[in-house]
Amino acid sequence: MPVRAKICGLSTGPTLAAAVRHGASHVGFVFFARSPRNVAPDQAAALAVQVPDGVARVGVFVDPEEGFLASAIAAGQLGVVQLHGEETPERAAAIRARYGVEVWKAVPVKRRVDLAAASAYAGAVDRILYDAKTPAAADLPGGMGLRFDWRLLEGFAHPLPWALSGGLDAANAAEAVGISGARLLDVSSGVESAPGVKDVDKIAGFLQSIAQL
């Protein structure tokens, strides 16, 4: 199975076009006001129409209010809702049933014991996203360029399909896949020139690096 990639935190037409042109399987829009990558539903709507069939639109949310979630799903024509907050399995399952979308749940990881949280979401979500655990005082639950020890995933019996996130870039993508066995990588800050500023050359470089795996 080829390694696929999601380019997350897109907010401009040129960077979205670069992600699509170079082979991203998923493109991500962040709906979280405190993030430098935040987009409003109307911005997402303008971007969504540029995404061709075969590339999945993913919306990233942190404990979203229901009305806002509904408007963002509709505006962004989302096929996937990615949850990065304290959402319970029950909330995740309800979102999947109500909106007919795939649901991914981020599980923050620092130690191997943290992986156990994934099992609670079996039957409630479609995919787990293993991401680096951020410091307790951090304003953001992800997108900070942090990575965890990928060796923690070695030999782990995954309860669900999964993806790897946190501190990825073109230089370490091959290492990440080789150690963890990931077949879907989720990158955001690793393809930026500054927080929230995507770089078309870095997007191209990342996608070209995984195309060789």
UniProtKB/TrEMBL annotation:
Chemical reaction(s) catalysed: N-(5-phospho-beta-D-ribosyl)anthranilate = 1-(2-carboxyphenylamino)-1-deoxy-D-ribulose 5-phosphate
InterPro entries: Aldolase_TIM, PRAI_dom, RibuloseP-bd_barrel, TrpF_fam
Organism: Alterirhizorhabdus solaris
Entry keyword set: Amino-acid biosynthesis, Aromatic amino acid biosynthesis, Isomerase, Tryptophan biosynthesis
Class of the enzyme per the UniProt entry, highest EC level: isomerase
Protein name per Swiss-Prot or TrEMBL: N-(5'-phosphoribosyl)anthranilate isomerase
GO molecular function: phosphoribosylanthranilate isomerase activity
Enzyme Commission code: 5.3.1.24
GO biological process, one term: L-tryptophan biosynthetic process
Entry superkingdom: Bacteria
Keyword Amino-acid biosynthesis recorded: yes
Family according to the record: Belongs to the TrpF family.
N-(5'phosphoribosyl) anthranilate isomerase (PRAI) domain segment(s): 5-208
CDD domains for this protein: PRAI
Pathway this chain belongs to: Amino-acid biosynthesis; L-tryptophan biosynthesis; L-tryptophan from chorismate: step 3/5
